[in-house]
Specification:
The protein is about 30% helix and about 30% strand. The radius of gyration is 21 Å and the shape is globular.
C-alpha cells in the first residue's frame, strides 16, 4: 500500500522545538483531519511531509524513498498551503491568478487543466486579477483549485476554507468528497472549523505543542468519548481509574471528560449525566486552555 511515513521527526528553530519525535503513517485512500491549536506545529508538519521545509532530525519517506530532493516522490505529493503574496516570491505582488495556476500546472505532472478551469468558473474568479488584490476568501479558492487540480496522490490542505462563506464551503466539501470517491486520493485537511468538516474525516490526527497526541479512526474515537456530570463525589467514584480531561467544578457539581478503553461500557449504577461528545468537544477537552 502506498504510504508516507515519518519517523522520529523533529523540527527546531534555534532553541525552540516546534515538532517533537513525530511518528506518523499516512495511507493511500483516506481523508485525514489534522487538528491542533495555533502554533501546535500543524503547518510545519505538512511542510516537512511535502519537502517544503527541511527537518532537523528523523526521516520522511514515500513508499520507502526519502522525499527530500526526490522529484519522483514529490510528483505524488501536493501541499496547497494558505496563500499570500509573500509565499510566491518577490514578484508575488504582480502575479495574476492565471500565471500562478500556470506555474502549478508545470509543477504537478498530473495537473487537470479542465478541473482547474471548471473550479475557476464555479468560484467566479477573474484570472487576470493580481494575487495581491484578492480577498481572504478568494485566496482560499485559489488554494483549493491547486489542491484538487494537482491530482496528487497525497494532497495536503492548510485551512482551505478560511474566509469562505458557507455556500462555498459546502461546495468544497462536496467536490473534495467526489474527488476522493472517484480517485482514492489521500487528503490531509488542517482546519479550525472542526465540526463542520468532521464528517469527511476517516481518521483524525491531533497535535498538541509539537507532539502527536493521537491518530485514530474518527468514529471509534467518538464512540469512546464522554462527558460525565453530577455531584463531585459521585463523578469521582465513577471515573476512578480513568485519565480525566477538561475538569470543571461549580459548587458541589463537577464535569469531566473521559475516554473508554477499547470496547468497554460505562458503568450504569451511578447517578450522573452522560453525554457523548462531538469532535470539536473532544478537541477542546484534549487541547483546551489549562487552568
Amino acid at each position: 500500500m502506498e504510504t508516507i511515513v515519518c519517523s522520529k521527526v523533529c523540527k527546531q528553530y534555534g532553541t525552540k522545538q516546534v515538532l517533537k519525535e513525530i511518528d506518523l503513517t499516512l495511507e493511500k485512500g483516506k481523508i485525514y483531519g489534522l487538528i491542533g491549536r495555533n502554533g501546535a506545529g500543524k503547518t510545519t508538519l505538512l511542510s516537512i511531509l511535502s519537502s517544503q521545509n527541511p527537518l532537523s532530525s528523523g526521516t520522511v519517506t514515500w513508499n520507502g524513498e526519502a522525499i527530500w530532493e526526490n522529484q519522483h516522490a514529490l510528483n505524488h505529493i501536493c501541499f496547497s498551503r494558505e496563500l499570500s503574496p509573500n509565499l510566491i516570491g518577490n514578484n508575488g505582488n504582480n502575479m495574476k491568478i492565471k500565471e500562478y495556476l500556470n506555474i502549478a500546472s508545470y509543477y504537478y505532472p498530473n495537473w487537470d487543466k479542465k478541473m482547474a478551469q471548471d473550479l475557476v468558473e464555479k468560484f467566479e474568479l477573474n484570472i487576470k486579477q493580481k494575487i495581491s488584490k484578492l480577498s481572504k476568501g478568494m485566496l482560499s479558492m485559489v488554494t483549493i483549485i491547486v489542491a484538487l487540480a494537482s491530482k496528487a496522490d497525497f494532497t495536503f490542505l492548510d485551512e482551505p476554507v478560511a474566509g469562505l462563506d458557507i455556500v462555498i464551503r459546502e461546495y468544497f466539501y462536496k467536490r473534495l468528497l467526489e474527488e476522493y470517491m472517484e480517485t482514492g486520493r489521500t487528503f490531509v485537511i488542517s482546519t479550525h472549523i472542526i465540526e463542520e468538516a468532521s464528517d469527511l474525516f476517516e481518521e483524525v490526527i491531533v497535535i498538541k505543542k509539537g507532539e502527536l497526541l493521537l491518530k485514530e479512526n474518527t468514529q471509534e474515537l467518538l464512540s469512546r468519548a464522554f462527558r460525565i456530570s453530577g455531584l463531585s463525589e459521585v463523578v469521582d467514584q465513577m471515573t476512578n481509574g480513568y485519565k480525566k480531561y477538561h475538569e470543571e467544578q461549580i459548587g458541589r457539581r463537577k464535569s469531566v471528560t473521559i475516554f473508554l478503553k477499547g470496547k468497554e461500557e460505562l458503568p450504569k449504577e451511578y447517578d450522573v449525566t452522560i453525554q457523548p461528545l462531538n469532535l470539536q468537544s473532544i478537541f477542546i477537552s484534549l487541547c483546551g486552555m489549562e487552568e
